């Protein structure tokens, strides 16, 4: 059994030894906080990552077994990501090719191509939203999935392939990407 002094016999040394761990923890937190930098102007944009969209889509065309299209978007559209997930499991599922772009306006847009059904593709990429309308872009009808507070998504059917575009862009940005996809020819599969 350990001995404890009665409270009336505690002195300043006891107070010092009980507060020392608290002071050390506060000094550690202050040191960590000092290493952080805060800006009154808010965050500053960093380097946007880039990927080789052409090489990625050509590889997907050779390995996925369905026609993959590479839209010609111009130099101001910067491909910045490629999704490594290559399948949608479950009923109507299939293989997937996804490339992300930064539009000239600075918004993120995603292009997903798949041999999955429209329902399976929509369920995988945008969740439980319902179709809310259509957009006619050239000779192609795009089914629009839009809900308040979420990024819109458009899906069209190219026969053996469904194409989904989604992102933070406005209607003109969606139209530009949809037009480029509609005009693109499938890449060689070998």
UniProtKB/TrEMBL annotation:
It holds the Pfam family DUF4245. It comes from the Bacteria. It comes from Nocardia acididurans. This is DUF4245 domain-containing protein.
């Amino acid at each position: 059994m350990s001995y404890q002094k009665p409270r009336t016999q505690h002195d300043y040394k006891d107070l010092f030894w009980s507060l020392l761990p608290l002071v050390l923890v506060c000094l550690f937190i202050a040191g960590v906080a000092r290493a952080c930098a805060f800006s009154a102007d808010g965050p500053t944009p960093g380097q946007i990552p880039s990927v080789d969209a052409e090489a990625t889509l050509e590889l997907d065309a050779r390995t996925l077994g369905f026609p993959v299209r590479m839209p010609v978007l111009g130099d101001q559209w910067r491909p910045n990501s490629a999704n490594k997930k290559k399948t949608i499991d479950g009923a109507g599922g299939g293989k997937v090719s996804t490339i992300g772009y930064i539009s000239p306006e600075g918004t993120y847009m995603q292009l997903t191509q798949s041999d999955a059904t429209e329902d399976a593709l929509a369920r995988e990429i945008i969740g439980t939203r319902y179709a809310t309308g259509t957009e006619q872009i050239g000779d192609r009808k795009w089914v629009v999935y839009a809900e308040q507070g979420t990024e819109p998504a458009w899906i069209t059917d190219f026969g053996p392939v469904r194409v989904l575009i989604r992102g933070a862009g406005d209607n003109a940005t969606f139209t530009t990407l949809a037009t480029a996809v509609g005009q693109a020819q499938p890449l060689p599969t070998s």
